[in-house]
Amino acid sequence: MYELYVKWCEEKKLAPQNKWLYYHIFNFEFNLGFHAPKKDLCNVCTEYNTKKDEQILNEDLNEKYNEHIKAKLEAREEKKQDIEACKNDPSTALLCFDMQSVLFQHVHKHRFQYLTIKKVRCL
């Protein structure tokens, strides 16, 4: 993001601050941070992989998993289309959040049931 800030400063003909100051302000004054996201698996994928490893897959789980993967691919394609639409229309912004890794509603049978938000569009 620092590189984007420098590019923005160049476009506005401003002198960018050094990288240390940029990160200090971003992390402490705005209370935001940078990290590499974890690669969590959802309950459907975890159950499928566990039963596949144990070689006890059944037809229902296999069908449920295939539908899940199909929905995941459709969501990714929709996200791509939304990103392209935002690139073509400067009055549109696209915000994507992975709320599954942040919020949960309650614990049920030792599993978290997560609140899922696919996308938020701001016009």
Automatic annotation (TrEMBL):
The coiled-coil segments of this chain are 58-89
Q: Which keywords fit this entry according to its UniProt record?
A: Coiled coil
The organism's place on the tree of life at top rank: Eukaryota
Q: What protein name is recorded for this chain?
A: Uncharacterized protein
Q: What is the lineage of its organism?
A: Eukaryota, Metazoa, Ecdysozoa, Arthropoda, Hexapoda
